[in-house]
């Protein structure tokens, strides 16, 4: 947890340093572009007082929703059907994993593309190289390395604490043999079987911490953008979208925390960070609203790169540490029926977040009726492609 807190502090400092007090666009020949890039475009829907009220409502509602989402799995021990070894828990976790997967692909990564390919940034280099996918790829590789090194470190630490670290440890045929060398003579000091349950528990703990790190970074960026906006038409749909997002993303994280079997202190710290990061980002955005412009080049680059990092991390965690670990595990492999229902749960979670992404885009553009007609025609096999969003 100390590692996660350290990285969170680094990201927050980076965000603070990314906002200049006075920003202008690169192109001085186009006054319209300068005006657009120098300030937030409200499309005639700017009301600072109303926006502030909505932000305060958002802070309270998102805080409560986040706490409910992340705490639901933690209190599920009192419900027999929601125990980690029960089928219902597997389905709920699969649904939440689908939400996290769609968050990376449908929300965070497109936002990064929008930022780094904005007209407010110069064509060279931002439009000549796919920075979003490149940074997301590096982030996924970095997440893999953190995952791998953390497992190796904690395994070594655990073995040394158990008295199996004297001399040289050799793994042979599933057993750990510890050899002590004295005057070039090797003696078998002892054997210790690798504890599969302890290894799995360690795996759960690494997954929970790395996943929370990615969620925290993404949540701060989301909250910051909302807090800095004075556009009620933008904030209003975002409140509903973020509440839905935090609820089910919290359930996924809560399931990982539950499986990690942390003590009450660590659980409380992880719940605290998850629940407060988005409200903290909103409050930070409110405080920086006078000096922060979401369309400024520096802000676009900072937010775009952070979103790309978060997207790579979330996509890796959702696919490798959550979905692959469960679907290739013994429980789902031994039951084709449960595996099929788990796939349905994943598709429902990912589909729900994808619809939320479409809804947010359309509502932000003031096309609620188009959204309703689009899905009506989609359901009844008419021609939804004629609608332009």
Automatic annotation (TrEMBL):
Secretion signal span: 1-25
The membrane-topology field of this record reads: Multi-pass membrane protein
Q: What is this protein called?
A: Fe(2+) transport protein 1-like
Q: Where are the transmembrane segments?
A: 56-76, 88-109, 129-150, 210-228, 268-288, 300-320, 340-364
Which InterPro entries would you find in this protein's record?
ZIP, Zn/Fe_permease_fun/pln
Q: Which GO terms describe its cellular component?
A: plasma membrane
Localization of this protein: Membrane
> What protein family is recorded?
Belongs to the ZIP transporter (TC 2.A.5) family.
Name the keywords, alphabetized.
Answer: Ion transport, Membrane, Signal, Transmembrane, Transmembrane helix, Transport
**GO MF annotations in UniProt:** zinc ion transmembrane transporter activity
Q: Does the keyword Transmembrane apply?
A: yes
Q: Which residues form a coiled coil?
A: none
């Amino acid at each position: 947890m100390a590692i996660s807190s350290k990285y969170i502090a680094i990201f927050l400092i980076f965000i603070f340093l990314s906002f200049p007090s006075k920003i202008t666009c690169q192109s001085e020949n186009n006054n319209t572009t300068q005006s657009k890039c120098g300030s937030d475009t409200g499309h005639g829907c700017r009301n600072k007082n109303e926006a502030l009220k909505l932000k305060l409502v958002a802070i309270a509602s998102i805080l409560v929703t986040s706490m409910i989402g992340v705490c639901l799995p933690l209190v599920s021990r009192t419900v027999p059907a929601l125990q980690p070894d029960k089928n219902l828990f597997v389905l709920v976790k699969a649904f939440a994993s689908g939400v996290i997967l769609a968050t990376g692909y449908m929300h965070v990564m497109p936002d990064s593309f929008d930022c780094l390919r904005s007209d407010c940034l110069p064509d060279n280099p931002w439009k000549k190289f796919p920075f979003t996918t490149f940074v997301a790829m590096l982030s996924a590789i970095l997440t893999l390395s953190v995952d791998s090194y953390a497992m190796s470190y904690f395994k070594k630490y655990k073995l040394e604490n158990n008295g199996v670290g004297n001399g040289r440890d050799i793994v042979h045929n599933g057993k750990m043999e510890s050899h002590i060398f004295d005057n070039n003579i090797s003696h078998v000091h002892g054997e210790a079987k690798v504890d599969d349950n302890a290894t799995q528990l360690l795996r759960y703990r690494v997954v929970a911490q790395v996943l929370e790190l990615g969620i925290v970074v993404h949540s701060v960026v989301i909250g910051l953008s909302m807090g800095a906006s004075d556009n009620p038409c933008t904030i209003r749909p975002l409140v509903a979208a973020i509440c839905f997002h935090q609820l089910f993303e919290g359930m996924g994280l809560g399931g990982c925390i539950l499986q990690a079997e942390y003590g009450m202190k660590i659980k409380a710290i992880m719940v605290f960070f998850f629940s407060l990061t988005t409200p903290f980002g909103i409050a930070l955005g409110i405080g920086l609203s006078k000096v922060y412009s979401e369309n400024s080049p520096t802000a676009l680059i900072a937010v775009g790169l952070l979103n790309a990092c978060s997207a790579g991390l979330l996509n890796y965690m959702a696919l490798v540490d959550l979905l692959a670990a469960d679907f290739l595990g013994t429980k789902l492999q031994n039951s084709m029926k449960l595996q099929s229902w788990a796939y349905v749960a994943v598709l429902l979670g990912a589909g729900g977040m994808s619809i939320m992404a479409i809804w947010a885009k359309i509502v932000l553009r003031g096309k609620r009726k188009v959204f309703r007609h689009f899905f009506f025609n989609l359901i009844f096999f008419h021609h939804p492609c004629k609608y332009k969003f």
